[in-house]
Structures are given as C-alpha cells and as structure tokens.
Amino acid sequence: MASSSSCSSCMLHRGLFVPKEIENRNRVSMFNDKSFSVSADLAQSRILVADQKSMKWNQTQKFSLKNPIKCRALEIDSAPSFTVGKKFQLDDVIEAQQFDRDILNAIFKVAREMENIEKNSSGSQILKGYLMATLFYEPSTRTRLSFESAMKRLGGEVLTTENAREFSSAAKGETLEDTIRTVEGYSDIIVMRHFESGAARRAATSAGIPIINAGDGPGQHPTQALLDVYTIEREIGKLDGIKVGLVGDLANGRTVRSLAYLLAKYQDVKIYFVSPDIVKMKDDIKEYLTSEDVEWEESDDLMEVASKCDVVYQTRIQRERFGERIDLYEEARGKYIVDRDVLRVMQKHAVVMHPLPRLDEIAVDVDADPRAAYFRQAKNGLYIRMALLKLLLVGW
Amino acid sequence: MASSSSCSSCMLHRGLFVPKEIENRNRVSMFNDKSFSVSADLAQSRILVADQKSMKWNQTQKFSLKNPIKCRALEIDSAPSFTVGKKFQLDDVIEAQQFDRDILNAIFKVAREMENIEKNSSGSQILKGYLMATLFYEPSTRTRLSFESAMKRLGGEVLTTENAREFSSAAKGETLEDTIRTVEGYSDIIVMRHFESGAARRAATSAGIPIINAGDGPGQHPTQALLDVYTIEREIGKLDGIKVGLVGDLANGRTVRSLAYLLAKYQDVKIYFVSPDIVKMKDDIKEYLTSEDVEWEESDDLMEVASKCDVVYQTRIQRERFGERIDLYEEARGKYIVDRDVLRVMQKHAVVMHPLPRLDEIAVDVDADPRAAYFRQAKNGLYIRMALLKLLLVGW
Amino acid sequence: MASSSSCSSCMLHRGLFVPKEIENRNRVSMFNDKSFSVSADLAQSRILVADQKSMKWNQTQKFSLKNPIKCRALEIDSAPSFTVGKKFQLDDVIEAQQFDRDILNAIFKVAREMENIEKNSSGSQILKGYLMATLFYEPSTRTRLSFESAMKRLGGEVLTTENAREFSSAAKGETLEDTIRTVEGYSDIIVMRHFESGAARRAATSAGIPIINAGDGPGQHPTQALLDVYTIEREIGKLDGIKVGLVGDLANGRTVRSLAYLLAKYQDVKIYFVSPDIVKMKDDIKEYLTSEDVEWEESDDLMEVASKCDVVYQTRIQRERFGERIDLYEEARGKYIVDRDVLRVMQKHAVVMHPLPRLDEIAVDVDADPRAAYFRQAKNGLYIRMALLKLLLVGW
Which residue in C24, C45, C182 has the most chain A C-beta atoms within 10 A of its own C-beta, making it the best mutation to test that interface? Predict the structure, then answer.
C-alpha cells in the first residue's frame, strides 16, 4: 500500500499527503493537525492515522469488527479512540529486513493467538467481508494454499490466480504496476509471488492496499523467514543464546540467507554453516553477521555440529540451479544427510527443521522422532500468515 | 437460461412451455391462465412468470431474501405479489445488442447501488447461498477476477475453471451443450468465456440457469460494453450529446465496436475514428451509425479530436492480429499515443478511457492526471458485474 | 486418515495407539479402558472413539454443530454420549470395495437428505468452518467442480489445486506422503485425484484427516461407483432383482468394473455385457460375479439386451487407450450406439445411464426422452459427494 503512486520511497515511511485518487475512492479526511492527521477508510473499515513525526500510517481496529453490517460512518463518531504513533504499524510485508525484534515479538504473539483460533473453534470471522487476491506469477502450490487457508480460517474470501505469468494480461505486455492497480480494485489485500527480485516492492509502491510478498525470485520470501524464526521460538522456547546449524545449499537458498539475517537481531546467537563446497554461504551474509557481532563458523562435520546445536536447519540442494552439471549436483546432494545417526548425537531438546519440500536430505525414518519439527514448521506458516493478514487488514 | 433445450430461439423470447425435465428438477407449476403462467423455481428461490404477450420469463424477488433458510414453498403462499409484464427481465447476458436505453439505465441504477454496497459495508449478503461457475475456455484473468470479486462482494460463492479448454472433458470431445448441462447441476449461474463466436448463445439455449457471456472469441463481450457506457455516464454525467474519440485498433477491437453500437442508442452523439490505416473501423459499424443518424467522421489528427471530445477512448494495437508482419505492427502501434501533450489540449471535464491492458499507447505520466479514467473504468466493471449478478439471480 | 503414519494397514482397521505427534496437535486423550478409549479432536470438533474389539475409530457428532463458536473443550464435559462400536464409521473413501450393502444404504439415505437441502433452502451451513483441499494431480474439471459444489452447498470452504502434478513441489521430487502431511495442516479433508493406482490409499495412510479418492489412475473412482448405484435406486426404485446392460468399453472403463462389483452385493441381479470384441469385460470381473452367484452373459445384440434391461449403461470408447491404432478405435466406437431405435425397444420404466462425457455413443435426440437419465446421474454425484463430506466431517 502506498500513499501515492508516484512516491517510490520506502513503504514504511509515508507522508501525510493523501492523494486525490485515493481520497476519491474510500477515504474521508477526518482531521489534520500538526501532530497527526486522521482519515477514515470507509471501504476498508479502518481509520488511518498519519503521524507527522514518523511519517507512517497507522491503522486502528477499534470499530472494525463489532457490527460489520452497520454503517461505519456512524460508528466513527461514537468510537473515536485512535492509537497514534505509539504502536508500530504494518502496511506491507516486503522483506525480512523490515522487521525488528519488537515487531517480530508482536507478530509472534498474534500468531500464538491464531493457533488457538485455528484449534479451538469452528473458524473465526475476524476477516469476514475481506477479499484477498493471490497473484502468483510463478506457481507455488504450497505457499498459495497456506495463505488461502489462513485467509479462510479467519472467515475471509480469496480470489486465486495460480499462473498469472502465462495467463494474464502480463502476456500481452502489461506492466506489473498496471496489473496491481487493476487487481486492487477487486480485493482488499494482494499476496504476490513473482519471478523477479524487487517485484513486491514495486507492487507495494503502486498499490493502495496492502501487499504481501510471497517470494520474488531470488530475492525475498519474508513469510518463510518469519515462520522459521517463530518455529525456533516455539520449539526451543527462546531465541537469544541459541546455536543453529544451517546445512545444505547455502548459496542458493534464500531461506537460510533470510534466517541468518533475522537471527542476527537476537543476542548470543551462534551459527554453523555446513555445506558442500560448491554451494557455500556467500560472503555478504558472513560479513553482515560479523558486523552484527554474531558468531559463525564453517564446518564440514555435520555430526559434530549436530551434537552442539539447538536447531539443525537442513535444506534441499536445488537441482534447478546446476543446469547441465548433473555430476556436480549428484556430488553435492549426497554429502550431508540428516538420518538416525545424526539424531543420535543431537541433544534431547534440539530439533530438525527444513523449509520443504525435501528429497532425501532427511531420511524418512527421522519423521517419527519428536525432534523432527519440519511438518510443525510448515503448519506454523499458517499461523504466521493468519497473523499477518489480521494485522494488515484490521490492525492490532 | 432457456425454457427448453431444443428451443433455439432468442433468449429474450420464451414460450410458456416448461419442459418436464426442468419441472422435474426444481420448478412447480403454480397457475397458468390466458394472460400468464407462473411457476416457482424452488431451487433458485424465485418465481418465474411467463407473460403470454411478450413471451418472456419474468422473475420476481419478492420472497427471495427475507428468510433464506425458510422453506420457500410456504413463503410463496403468503407473498403472492408478482410483477407481470411491466418490468423488464434479464435471463441471460449474451450480447450488447440485447440492451435498449431503458434497460441500460435500469442496470446503471443498480450499479450505483452496488458502488455504495462495495464502499460502505463489510460486504453484502444479497447473494448468500448462490453459486457462480466461471467456465473459461480461454484464460482472461482480469475478467475472471472481476466477476469473482463481484460475486464474493455480494456474499455469493464461486466455482472456478481457469482453462476449461485444455483441461476439461472438452478435450475428450464433449459438446459445449453437454458441459453446460452438467455444470448447471453444480451452480446457479454460469459466467462463460469461449474462443468461438456464438458459444454463449448456444450455452444459453441449453442451460436452465442464467448464462453471462464474458467474451466469446471475436464475437461479443457485453459486460465490457456496459462498463464502458457506465463509465462515460459516471465521468461525464450524461450520454446524450457527447463527443467520443475512438483511437487505436478499431478493426480488431470488439470493445470499440460494441461501444459504437451502444452509443447509437443515445441522442446527438458524435463519434471520431482515429486509427492507423491498417486497422480502420470497418464499414458495418459505419453503416450502422449512419442508419441510426449518428454523426461520425474519420480523422488522422488526434490532437484536434482530443481537443473537441468528452471522451478519448484509446485502445491497444493487438499484436496477435498481425501474425508475422511485425513491421506493420510496429508502424501502427507508435502512431497515436495519448501523452501529456494530448492532455494539454483536452478539455477540463474530458476523460481518457482504455479497456486495458495498455502497453505504451497511453504514456505512464498521464496516470496522475485526474482525467485519466481507465483504472476507475476497470473498477466500474466490478459494479456492473455485481449489478448483473444481482439482477439475474434475485431480480430487481 | 491414519492413526499412525508408519501404519500401512487397511484404513478401516485402526489401533488404539494415538501417536504423540497427532496428540500434540489437536487431540486430548479423555479416557481409555478395556472396552474403548476416547480422545477428543479439538481442531476437528469431533470425538474419536476407538473400540478395542473392532479396532476402528468411530466419530460422533454430538457436539459438533450446536454452538460452533463455543469452546469445544467445555462442551465435551456436558455432552458425553458416545456411539461405540454400533454404528459404522467412515474414515476415508478409497475404493468401492470398502462399502457393504448396509453402508451403501446408509449413505444413500443421507444423499436423499442432501437432495432436499440442495433444493429447498438457500444453502446449508452444516459444514461451515470446514475446509476441503482438492489436490488434483491430473485435471478432471467435472469431478472437481462436483466436489467443490458439494462442499460449498453445505457451507464449507475449498482450497483448490487444479494441476498439482505440474505445479507443486511434486515437480521438485517431493513424495506424495510429504505433500499430504503438509496439506493436511491447511485443511480438514483432502479430495485427491492421482494418476497412479493406489495413491489414495498411500495418502490415507499418511494423513491425519479424511481422504476421498476422486480417481487414482486405472485404479478406483469410488464416488462414481456410488453415484451410479444411487442413480439406479433412485430411477428404478430398487436394486435387488434388476437387469443391467453394460455397453461399450468394458475393458478400460473403471466405471463399469466398479459398478459390476457393487451390483454383486444385491440379490438376483442379472448383468449383460455388450461390447466390441477388442474391449470386452475382463475375466477377473466375470469370475468375481460367478463366485458371488451373480448371473451374467455376453451378447452382441444391443437391441435384445435393451428390451430386457432396467438399465442400459452406455460408456465411451476411450480413444486414449488405443494409441496409434486409430483404425481399431474407429471400428469399435461405431458399433453400439444408443439412439431412438434402442429407446423404442426399451421398457417404459427403464433408463439410459452414462458416466459422461459422451461423444456420439448416445445420439443427441435421446436427451429429450424422460428415460435419458445421464444428466440426472451427474447431478446425483453432487448429492453423493455432499453426503460423504458430511459423514466424514461431522458424522451421522
């Protein structure tokens, strides 16, 4: 969501200016003084507060769910309690870097509430009346189903595009910006997957509604990064002081790169890199960790690393990155396998994680061990996405 | 929707005969005298009234939304007020030609109500319990999302087929008629896009439920035509007396052809055709306009036309129509561009429209001008489709 | 649904053991004595009863629909009436052979109730809050739409995957078991179509939620078999003592094979096989019928068979099975056509059935005859699927 389509600044810094085109649509300006301005977005049933200092839009949820059928214009008068400038706000989810430790904690708290919602009732109606568009320029069934399940578990509705690249007007040469401006007319939030790095940010700049990046090429996949960190906290009980072994394809896996980035926000974290030579972790992440005082080391001894770590994070060697060098792929893929031997040296409280899909880098007989956390990890993706949808659509 | 599968007459003229097969399914005949017959469609929760004179089915909405769970058979007794022969009825939406000026006005009035519904509440439940099937034999993400959003904004549900041509039993040789008769068993209304001209009419003849044509090959795309006219009225405030410049690919664009056709229903309209020689407006439309006393002229001066018009309707040169003659395409596409120079000569109240997707026939820096109406136009498609779904499913 | 992912036994025989991993998720053990154990599945809002003797899970619906928002944990205390071991239970729908006559009757009774629900109200809310995933590894638009319509007619929601084979992580080499364990985290029931025989059973063994087989390769398509038998009962009024002619491609059609299998469960059934030599019914079914004392004969006289039968079940000659031998296909396809001549010799109460899609093996002018039951048969698929979804999700 951007406050102006011509503004290409960071999506976390918004000016006070409400462009005519957006005002025309749904918003009525309510008041505007030196410290903040308020406008009510009638269509989205939320009040937008622009704090002069932080230049951020803040949305409150005060009146959003009480009587969903009732005219909001009336309710605004009788429920004028805004949260101004104090609480952080979420306009879009574009990259792992946008989250600091406080925001992560806040999101995780909501994710925990979502676990209860999903488990204890026949479905929430928190997002009833809201419509999410899944605009996928490359297929990713797993991610798409996770988002769509999250939306529907909260009572929301979904418009699906499974293969927008091939099918849509994009094939006729339409720009992403134009597509976004059309689709935002049909929905309240867009979950986008794209084959180009930076596409999600471009979309957010054009859009008047929230954008969630569900992966943009070799770039970012922030909800995966969030669910990984959330899973570590849920499984191990803490993030400060943990030891994490990142194993497998560390060169091409955006998952492990984002995870390393987020772990750097916590105290006394130690990271081990275990990978075939051909797919070693790149220098940029290593330098970043060093600059953030995060201890890391490379190792070629999976057993030793596994015996020390709280988390063994295994990844798939991505065949698609090797092109015709099948020989190199075959050499790399068999090198570090998590099997019962690895489990044997792991600590009792430690867990094995994996972003899935897995091939044989984790042996199937590991699944039955309680420390095999990867399917719970996948399920945590649902809770994280429920939390983000709630936060973006109705606020805290 | 047809009253008989063997009847191939116009979908706006229906006989009194209710075939056994349809009666079997959901309808009970209620009474039948010289002036009209009445049957209640229990599954569709509407009463069908066949007026002897006009030979049209008319559906009333009297008892449709009050107590949706309650047995309709009972309600029929206590709410026997039918509208007979007075109000026009809508059974299917097949082609732009089926609408006269009165019907257009009536639809536009409902579309305005839909704008309010979409903007002011957390979603209507007018179509709760209704199921729309989108049967797309060729992909059109934009149109499909617009219809599905319209249905869901009104509380209805959707069954989606994004690529029926490749996937369905059509690949095994099933006729369209058989497919329709199967799908109508699963849904309450079918929105169909097809690659063959006339397919929608064939479907309507077979179907016992309403059909909306979402484009059939080079043939018709009536909801696009309706939203274009609706947009002109919304933006300019009137339709009589307007001046419209149709620009770009006038030979292949069914949009501009349908628009010219519908504009002929209004008074004192003046149409300008501005196009490269290779894609000039065809004679059939010119002759039709002349026969309807609509003034038109061809021009190769976009600036002059733009300075006189209320609406500059730009279209994309369709590369796919040029085959291997890329040279001709390249020559044609650069000829008439709407840019800031064109905006400068346009009147203050005038607007630029475009059916989208656009390539570079409208410069991106035009977007910020309030006269750039094309994204509002796309949004109007939502309101028109909401209106049509409401009218076809629950009546006026 | 399996009680353990490592247990590969028949899905109708379940042990008492509730694996930790499932307990962790949603179930709390309630009590466990010599005769049965009870655990409450909080997420699925049902109580699972494991009868020691039959080793089957039994689910009751006592507390499932009353107050869907209310916490189930509380309700369990106040509604402790279980059905133990008496009523049959349905965990998965994998193959036609799993149903005996009593179960078929019970399902058909629920299907009749579903007809009323579909016809007389604006939609049921029986499955509100439940989420069905359609995981289709090969496209089958007809079957998919039928299941999705069934779910939505009962107020449930759907996650769709139209072409899981090409799109999903399966393309990256993920096993079916892993896919199922991920998708079950996003949904309450999985409807699966697969290109490999036995895939549905493998899925059911992995899954902690119910699986419905919507066709697995040349293997089974049990819901088609159920709807066929249901249609015969609905149209003819009985199943004992009926005469059925199976016509067309009897070698490749899994439909006719399953139907023959199920008909053997009834008394005094007589089956006629009428097919081109190249696609005759295989010996395994003939031997099975003989072993079950079902009378059958082969005939090459369609007229004579049609004059004797209650049901003429026509099928399509499947071109895709003939490879390059188009000549053999052409010879076979024209041999037995159901046309008005066949209708003329058929009895007044008899019906023509066909699993659809049809090509020209039934002449189009047969459609208008009331004995043409194939579109009603397709519609019955909706009722059968509604019934199965209800039974699997909320019980009897």
Answer: C182
